Fold this sequence. Notes:
Elements: H1 7-26, H2 35-53, H3 57-62
Helix pairs in contact: 1-2
Amino acid sequence: MKANENGVDRALRLLLGVVLLVASYMWLGVAAGEITGIIAAIIGAVLVLTGLVGFCPAYRLVGMSTCKVKNS
């Protein structure tokens, strides 16, 4: 897996992912089985995971990358 996210992209994913995870537990009722909380928790977890790893499968599917291109 070659990284396809730059530092800013990764930081934003981590921040948004943590916010969604916290919101899903605090206000959206994931523990009570509320569908909005479950969806928010899943999206938040995916964002945190891709932010930590630096690789987004969706970017790869569409041939996108936010990493700087190195000229050789």
